[in-house]
Amino acid sequence: DTEVTQTPKHLVMGMTNKKSLKCEQHMGHRAMYWYKQKAKKPPELMFVYSYEKLSINESVPSRFSPECPNSSLLNLHLHALQPEDSALYLCASSLETASYEQYFGPGTRLTVT
Amino acid sequence: AQSVTQLGSHVSVSEGALVLLRCNYSSSVPPYLFWYVQYPNQGLQLLLKYTTGATLVKGINGFEAEFKKSETSFHLTKPSAHMSDAAEYFCAVSGSSNTGKLIFGQGTTLQVKP
Predict the structure, then answer these.
(1) Is A72 on the interface with B (CB under 8 A)?
(2) Highest mean pLDDT: which of A55-64, B14-23, B28-37?
């Protein structure tokens, strides 16, 4: 099973709302990632978790807050977002961070109004 | 620093024709290379990967790619295009520091004409 699941599929939120994105994998992978993708662009790395610890934060604004409660679950908490944050948010996982292929989830389409 | 260049942001082929999507990379260490496909409103799906060993790599859906170190290339090919191959294709190289960072190319949109 090489499946990464993400919920919700779509999310519309106002600039004062607080919401969370959820990502789950049951492949025994110890590295998990959040990416942001704008239309017709490659994914941009936001965060990397390795063995449930945050290992990379690509200078992401604090209105995005990641959390890794356990080795199978990754959350992205959203607060006070801006319209320019509207994008497809992708979660991925890999066996470890060391050059292994990443498996991507279907994404959450976020619209900030 | 590592980088990936995909030549041609848009490629159009006829159904049944050869598909060739070009990818060149720059890396100071032996690279791990990947091709991903993204269908509209979906996540990225791994097509194939090169790590070590055989330089001709076969992937899913009839795609293959050849690692050519002398040309720093990893072009993706498929002998006969299907309508269902129409999608966005990304070439990526694994970052040299084992951090998990993937360096993506800008992507190539493949159009398949009937």
Answers:
(1) no
(2) B14-23
